Amino acid sequence: MHGRRGSELQAQSLLLKSKKGTSWNRASPTEARTAYSATRNPEAKSYGPSADAVVGIDLFAGAGGFSLGAKQAGIDIIGAVEYNKHAAATYRLNIRRRNGAKVRLLEKDILKLDPNEAMSEWELEPGRCDIILGGPPCQGFSTHRLRDSGVDDPRNALLARYFDYVAAIRPRMFLVENVPGLLWQRHADYLDQFLDMAEAADFEVIGPFVLNACDYGVPQNRKRVFILGIDRTRRTPVVWPPEPTHVSPTTDPELRRNRPYWV
Questions:
Q1: Residue 188 placed within a domain
Q2: Does the N-terminal or the C-terminal CB of the chain have fewer CB atoms within 10 Å?
Q3: Mean pLDDT per segment of 10 residues, for the chain of length 263 residues?
Q4: All residues at 6 or more sequence positions from 219 whose CB lies less than 8 Å from its CB, including other chains
């Protein structure tokens, strides 16, 4: 582990079979917590990672939802990219001012921003990042798109651009979030390209999974696709997907396992 530790991530439930990417790399919760006991250094003066920090990068950062969840999980987000000026302003307010995160937000077009330039801005060496988070703009995959209108949407290419950053930064793991429409057959080429890139770069892919926020105590029926990738060369233990913390009121009492109902 080279003295580095990570933080056990939480998301949401329901396995959905995929054409590719169904391999597993499981550890017990105790092993995962030991490997991922997160620490941060609030005295850090620069944007670069401190020696013992669990380091994260947030691509397509939006208003900061992913970064906020990572911070609450003990991950030190040191860098982010967001092109939309209004979203970027909200990110700065949410993550930097209100939560005190020492993150350098690059307000640039990720298609034009070279990963090496971004790494220089973040004072980040290859292999020093523990996790890259990202939810590439999902309008092209959304269920609100009629028929095949999203197939040639240029925003769909951002999924491959996300992996360009993964390949350059070489994190211990990556986590992608998107809408369930990503799994539709008409978008299979985009998903398969991404999964092929991950496999070729020696990342073990876990998923895709469709997880629902209501299964984790969020008062919202919100399903999203999650894809986790683990660098095979560093054997980081993980528990994925996480067990649901809440259940539907219609769940068989014997299956509840003392878990509360949806909020």
A1: yes
A2: C
A3: 34 33 39 35 47 89 94 94 96 85 93 97 95 80 42 65 95 94 83 92 95 94 95 90 91 82 89
A4: 262, 263
- Does 138 participate in catalysis according to the annotation? yes
DSSP 88-140: HHHHIIIIIITT----EEE-S-TTTS-HHHHHHHTT--TT--SEEEE----GG
Catalytic residue among 124, 138, 228, 247: 138
CB-CB contact of 55 with 22 (8 Å): no
Place of tokens 């939810």: 135
CB 204 within 8 A of CB 172: no
Show the domain range for 208.
29-256
CA atoms of 227 and 5, how far apart (whole Å): 21
CATH of the domain at 68: 3.40.50.150
